[in-house]
Amino acid sequence: MPDCQIPTSSNPVDKVAGLVFLLELKRIPVYDAGQSEEDAWTELMDVTDDKLRALFLFWYPKPNGNGSWRPSWKQLMTETSPELPSVFDYRRNHDAHVCWTTEDGDSYDGPRMDACLVQGLADEAGKSRSGKLTVQGLSGVEHTFRIVANHAYPIPDGQYTLLGTFYKRSAELTDWCWVIGKIEAHKGKFRKVSVVEMEDDREGERIRTLNLYKSTKTFFFDRSSHVHPSPPLPSPFQFLWSLYAALPLLLRLVTKMFLL
User: Fold this and answer.
1) Contact 174, 160 (CB under 8 A)
2) What does the pLDDT look like over 145-177, one tens digit per residue?
3) For the chain, what is the radius of gyration of the CA atoms?
4) In Å, how far from its chain's centre is CA 213?
5) Longest distance between any two alpha carbons in the chain, whole Å
6) What are phi and psi of 180, to 5 degrees?
7) Which residues contact residue 138 at a Cβ distance below 8 angstroms, ignoring those fewer than 6 apart?
8) What is the DSSP letter of 5?
9) How far apart are the C-alpha atoms of 235 and 230, rounded to whole Å?
10) Residues 154, 129: Cα–Cα separation, whole Å
11) How far is Cα of residue 80 from the mean position of the Cα atoms in its chain?
């Protein structure tokens, strides 16, 4: 989100409104110039489609201050963002979904491996680091895989639960991505620690053919007291107001495209 980190409006909330168009959302929250940026960002994530919400789960290497599965607005504005695929490519080639229900909050239903040993990624030096992942199969045999962290966020050696998904780079190549985290003992919810990838598509194919993961519904830990609303579809006036608020950012992006 580097374009949103450059001031283009007198009201910081307008940057959040601009993401409605960058993320190609079909629904938008009600624009409120008086709310905080974090609240506006949370409401925007509430109306973001399930598949795109998974992008923030699997691509952002750090949890936010509440231990949430997605970054906070402050993180988006102050930290170096990972290189993200285009929204179009992501929706076409990726099938992960982060869903939400009134009773249980946010969750992910997909590949999961418990009691996995992660090693070699605790050093912050350098952007990309190589480590290893050890998983025990049903027969008790341990299997070791090469993994990489394409970010500088340290991951202490230890035992973790991993949530996985794959991304089709081409007809022949598939990238496996994993969210590393801990299961909270008292509620059994997943607390995100960081993200890693298999070193190459061969390692991803190994983990798939060995059948080491199970498709499981996992609920996320979130210390936030925010209650997700059921946002109504915006009226034409609300839509036009949000468009007007986002115009400075949109004009800058269009200008940048023509200068390339």
Assistant:
1) no
2) 999 999 888 999 999 999 999 876 665 556 789
3) 19
4) 20
5) 62
6) -95, 135
7) 211
8) G
9) 15
10) 10
11) 14
Cα–Cα distance measured from residue 207 to residue 217, given in angstroms and rounded to the nearest whole number = 19
Are the C-beta atoms of residues 98 and 69 closer than 8 Å to each other? yes
Higher-pLDDT residue of 175 and 247 is: 175
The C-alpha atoms of residue 169 and residue 201 are separated, in whole angstroms, by: 10
Residue type at 247 in one-letter notation? L
Burial category of 107 from C-beta neighbours within 10 Å (exposed 0-12, middle 13-18, buried 19 and up): middle
> Cα-Cα-Cα-Cα dihedral of 235, 107, 71, 255, to 10°?
-40
Please give the single-letter amino acid code of residue 187: K
Our measurement of the distance from residue 164's CA atom to the centroid of its chain's CA atoms, rounded to an integer in Å, reads 12
Please state, in angstroms and rounded to a whole number, the distance separating the CA atoms of residues 38 and 25. 18
Instruction: Give the integer Cα–Cα distance in Å for 192 and 68.
Output: 7
Confidence of residue 233 (pLDDT cuts 50, 70, 90): very low
101-115, 128-142, 235-249: which has the minimum mean pLDDT? 235-249
Specify the 3-state DSSP secondary structure of 148: strand
Burial of 93 (0-12, 13-18, 19+ CB in 10 A): middle
CA 127 to chain centroid: 19
Which residues does 235 contact at the CB level (< 8 Å), separation at least 6?
none
The answer to whether 98 and 53 are in contact (CB under 8 A) is yes
Which residue from 44, 70, 37 is spatially nearest to 229, judged by alpha carbons?
A: 44
| Chain CA centroid to CA 41, Å | 14
